[in-house]
Amino acid sequence: MTTASMKEINLRIKSITGTKQITKAMELVAISKLTKAMDRITKCRPYYTELYSQISGISELGLPEESVYCQDREVKKSCIIAIAGDRGLAGGYNSNLFKYFESEAEGKQICVLPMGKKAIEHFSRRGYEILSESYQSVEDVDVGDCFELSRMLTQLYSDGAFDELYVVYTTFVSMLSQTPASLKLLPLDVTSPKGEPSDIGYTLIEPSPAAVFDSIVPSGLAGLIWGAVCESRASELAARRIAMENATSNAEEIISDLRLKYNKARKSSITQQITEIVSGAQAE
Q1: Within the chain, how many helices (H) and strands (E) appear?
Q2: How many CA atoms, within 13 angstroms, populate the side-chain half-sphere of residue 110?
Q3: Of 30, 13, 93, nearest to 245 (Cα)?
Q4: Which end of the chain has less neighbouring CB within 10 Å, N or C?
Q5: What CA–CA distance (Å, rounded) separates 194 from 153?
Q6: What is the pTM of this model?
Q7: For 180-210, how does the pLDDT look when each residue is reduced to its tens digit (9 = 90+)?
Q8: Going by DSSP bridges, is the β-strand pair 177-186/164-174 parallel, antiparallel, or unpaired?
């Protein structure tokens, strides 16, 4: 009985040790990729921040009333870009984003443009209207894809396919904190922040401010989408690193507990063998 118990414990130790090696490897991979993702955030944030600032500056010339991208209209249908993960094993990263999405979409008629394998699977199962399934992997999305996506969405918005556009993603707050968030892309709210005067009024804009504004909006939205992609990618990797670190730590605790049980069973087995030997010797 004790021997069988020792064998079972030993097999479990080997199994959990193998799992621990996998989770540790995944943690190291996530750390390596996270360094690059954080560097990408640092580089892209100034770009889309300044670009959106320029759009706001041009709008000071009184263009929002003329542009289709700034005109408020009755919202009959909304479009939401949902950026989730490419795979699981990232704690509550995907589930938290989907819960936030449901709260944002409640009571609205919507169509979805999912990014990431988990997002496509989630919205397909629930029967949402999906604009495109081209973005199967967030990791493979680049700046060019964001510009292509922005041109498609701004054209659909101009044609009246939907009346407002949002992006739902996860912001990278810190290594230990990632928060789901949404950003309204269309119609644009281009009111300049108070206390930040712009010198755009002294800039010569050709061929005309209206033409430049309408041509720069898709580029501005592409920058915002790219920023959301970078934030989401870094958040997914950080969540996976934490999840794998916790899994590795839990595996170590289980292995330690099993080894203690194994040693107790081994001690009991040795004591039983000694008792049987002594009893046999006394019987002789």
Answers
A1: 5, 5
A2: 22
A3: 30
A4: C
A5: 30
A6: 0.80
A7: 999 888 887 655 444 444 455 556 556 666 6
A8: antiparallel
